[in-house]
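As the next step, I selected for study one protein, both as residues and as discrete backbone shape codes, as given directly below:
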Amino acid sequence: MNHRQILDAALRSQPAPRSRYLNLVADRVERDGRFADRTHLLYPVLARAAGTVEPMLEPVEFVDLLAEFLAHHGAAIGAALYDRAYLKDPDRALAGPASLLSGWISARILDGLQSGRYRPPDDRTYRFHSDNGDMDGALRGFPFHEDDAAAD
């Protein structure tokens, strides 16, 4: 089976810049020996995470990040793919690994923004949130934490 078809199908519903970017990344993955026997693990997770990928990293850096991600989490991805739950609901079965991959990508981008290697596009606004909207502890009231404490 050509596992890239899984990613290609997911990219059809993505905005053109993101789709072009992820196709460049996939082309590099196809030529990279580190993925020779692991694309069956990578493409389903990357397809599930495609909607969260910001095309800011250089494709070479992105491929390196993917290789590192698979080195750390390949066994868990394999377990999710070969679990019976994947047959019933692939999106749900891969939600955890896809979320983890999105976190790795976001962390790398944030590091690059902080160090000045990347500049955010002028037409973008970024916001941060938790998955369930519950913000406890130091983040409660963010960005107005100091005002909330003073009012109490």
